[in-house]
Amino acid sequence: MECNAVELSGRLLEVEPLRHTPAGVPLLHFLLAHASSQIEAGHERRVECEVKGIALGEPATQMARLKAGDEIRVHGFLSRKNRMSAQLVLHATRTELKESDHA
After folding, report:
1. Domain boundaries, position 55
2. How far is it, in rounded angstroms, from Cα 31 to Cα 29?
3. pLDDT of residue 101
4. pLDDT digits (tens, 9 = 90+) for 76-88
5. pTM value?
6. Is residue 1 part of a domain?
């Protein structure tokens, strides 16, 4: 199996309401804003991006409790938005609310 694993932290910009597929599987779309400093070619580089994501099943049910502004860490993989698109979407398989938000 080839590697396709993503771990990304950030602030939720959008969390759409929980829906269900025709088969009854929970489904949730979200938008995550990430900002960090990374080392590239020996130099520090500021990285900022917004990443569209989707969660299915239990991760969707868990994310439905979150709200815009929450700081989270998402574990998952990348896939095309659909078979006709080259746009990538982060598929969340696990999410964690960052410790600072537990207060």
Report:
1. 6-102
2. 7
3. 46
4. 999 999 999 999 9
5. 0.89
6. no
